[in-house]
Write a structure and sequence with these properties.
The chain folds into 2 domains: about 1-110, no CATH class; about 130-170. The chain has helices spanning about 40-55, 70-75, 90-100, 105-110, 130-170, and strands spanning about 1-5, 10, 25, 35-40, 60-65, 80-85. The protein is an alpha+beta fold. It has a 3-stranded antiparallel β-sheet, with no helix packed on it. Strands 4-6-5 form a 3-stranded antiparallel β-sheet. Bound molecules: zinc ion. Zinc ion (ZN) binds near residues 6, 7, 18 and 20.
């Protein structure tokens, strides 16, 4: 995950430039960097504010204005959107809080999930949805099988190639 210090926005590694200001001056986020958690409507902002104060989360809210990221990138569009910034180190905890009060749904959570695992290695052990955990396991199992077949295929091909070469030279 990269970080645009100008927009205080997390940027996926593969994007290489900030989607908002197009800056290429991206760096690795640090624990204390303020990052955009989400953009919320006035109504939701009240809930988020209350939940964060309740949990003692350090956060900052700014009305969308000059230089604010377009809501199409960071959240649902609305006229009175408020951007919530939290410490990068607390991003996951904050997402959990938002999920807890029903602000974030699964797709929102995906949006802000870092692509790499350097920040925090916390893949929740107890996934709330049995289905998705099962699906994850299935994909993992299938990819393991595919990998075994791949290795077998390479070995088999190497054997075949060796035989073919031997046959070619002993002709
Ligand atoms: Zn930027």
């Amino acid at each position: 995950m990269l970080y645009c210090s100008k927009c205080q926005l997390l940027v996926k590694d593969e994007m290489r430039r900030c989607p908002v200001c197009s800056s290429k001056k991206l760096r690795t986020p640090e624990q204390d960097d303020p990052v955009l958690l989400m953009t919320a409507s006035e109504e939701k902002a009240g809930m988020i504010r209350a939940a964060f104060r309740d949990k003692g989360v350090v956060f900052e809210e700014r009305s969308r204005g000059i230089g604010g990221p377009p809501s199409t990138i960071v959240g649902k569009p609305s006229n009175t959107d408020i951007n919530f910034f939290v410490r990068y180190g607390e991003l996951h905890a904050c997402e959990d809080i938002l999920r807890g009060i029903g602000i974030l749904d699964a797709s929102d959570a995906e949006l802000h999930k870092p692509a790499d695992k350097t920040g925090s290695t916390d893949i929740p052990e107890s996934a709330p949805e049995e289905m998705s955990a099962g699906k994850r396991f299935f994909i993992r199992a299938v990819s393991a099988i595919v990998f075994i077949f791949l290795v077998w295929g390479v070995v088999a091909f190497a054997d075949w190639a060796a035989e073919a070469l031997k046959a070619f030279f002993t002709r």
